[in-house]
Amino acid sequence: MKKRIAILLSGRGSNFEAIARNVASGALDAEIAVVISNRPGAAGLAAAEKLGIPAVTIPSRGMEREAYDALLVEELRRHRADLVCLAGFMRFLSPVFVRAFPNRVLNIHPSLLPSFPGLEAQRQALEHGVKISGCTVHFVDEDLDHGPIILQAAVAVEDGDTEATLSARILKEEHRIYSEAIRLVLAGAVRVENRRVIQNRGARV
Fold first, then answer.
1. 61-106 pLDDT, tens per residue?
2. Angle made by CA atoms 65, 69, 72, in degrees to the nearest 5
3. In terms of CB atoms within 10 Å, which of 9, 59, 79, 173 comes out highest?
4. Do the beta carbons of residue 23 and residue 17 sit within 8 Å?
5. How far is it, in rounded angstroms, from Cα 59 to Cα 159?
């Protein structure tokens, strides 16, 4: 039986669509069980519906974080999610959520963590003057952009880069490594020791 992925998003769902393409092509041996957004009208929901994937809106406005996360957990369990993938989900998850899915929540961030966590990571990188930026797939823990790192990809910062041009090149790498990280986690090919994510020897990946 294929593992079931749930996607949480707040906007266009670019990384969701990349994951969906890899699922459809067979490059990622899994199925997308549900796409959930906290924002009604998010473009990613329309993309999910077009692909025949269950799309659910759970509005977050005006709700306390733990109360909202309890609703998310209930919906994800209803869809029997094996792995939860954040794809531009613009909310900071509470301990209630993280503890419900230990080492089963992934996020992708457009920087080489631990550098430049939080919002506008590409702008932060340009303002800091770094020569190398990139993206990171990590397990989600109870701190912002902090969990153990699964995969990273480096992207050179060019002299003429703007936030838009750098973001576009990083996004290409996001689309590549997110599905790879999902594949490793679903295959049981990695384990966490302290903060290090280590590939299991002999794992079939």
1. 999 999 999 999 999 999 999 999 999 999 999 999 999 999 999 9
2. 150
3. 9
4. no
5. 41
pLDDT computed for residue 200 by the predictor = 85
Q: Please tell me the distance from the alpha carbon of residue 53 to that of residue 119, in angstroms, as a whole number.
A: 29
User: In sequence order, what are the residues at sequence separation of 6 or more whose Cβ sits closer than 8 angstroms to the Cβ of residue 42?
Assistant: 9, 10, 11, 12, 13, 57
The CATH 3.40.50.170 domain(s) of the chain lie at 1-101, 108-205
Biggest alpha carbon–alpha carbon distance for the chain = 49
For the whole model, what pTM was predicted? 0.94
Of 38 and 200, more confident: 38
Query: Class assignment of domain 108-205?
Result: alpha beta
The catalytic residue positions are 109
